[in-house]
Amino acid sequence: MNDAAIILIPIGGVALLLLIWLIATFNRLMSVRQHMRESWADIDVELKRRYDLIPNLVATVKGYAAHERGVLEQVVKLRNTAAANHGAAAEQAVDETALAIGLKQLFAVVENYPQLKADAHFLALQQELALTEDRLAAARRFFNANVRELNQLCDTFPSNLIAGMFSVERGSYFEVASDAERTAPRVTVGA
Fold first, then answer.
1. Is 186 contained in some domain?
2. CA–CA dist 21, 158 (Å, integer)
């Protein structure tokens, strides 16, 4: 072997290893970003389910609590605002927080109507909403875990170099605004 080959073979090996690492890191970034998008789609499905349940719940309550019109209209308005928001997770979290507070107010109104609390249709809607809230909470946790992983890759060396080269942006978490709004709206079933 000549001297040039002895020098070029190790340099070529290092370059090949560097290229393999670059491709693997890029693919990992893209995979995590895709998981984040997929988990956001799961949240979107649960939000749409919630949006579909709310008008039925409001219509059922209207039959019993017609004079509580302001609360009912506010919940419908909050639902429409939340359903229309298709921005980033942080932006949607603001509308979802307001909707959760509105639902709590609606369930507080329901507490004053014992016949409504015992109505089979209302109980079924309430149970579906509670299940949806549970699934939504699980989907949020999964989404936020994917955001955390993507952000870690974007922030830590050396993967941050690849993220910067390919303009991979950090994700935003989907979280509620305050501790008071962190609980799912519920009323005791059968009370």
1. no
2. 10
Q: Is 35 exposed, middle or buried (0-12, 13-18, 19+ CB in 10 A)?
A: middle
Range of the domain at 65: 3-181
Question: What domain count does the chain have?
Answer: 1
Q: CB-based contacts of 139: which residues, under 8 Å, 6+ apart?
A: 39, 42, 43, 45, 46
Angle between helix 3-64 and helix 120-155 axes, rounded to 10 deg: 160
Give 94-116 pLDDT, tens digit per residue.
Answer: 888 888 888 888 888 787 777 77
CA distance 132 to 187: 14
Domain CATH number, residue 82: 1.20.1440.20
Structure tokens at 49: 């389910």
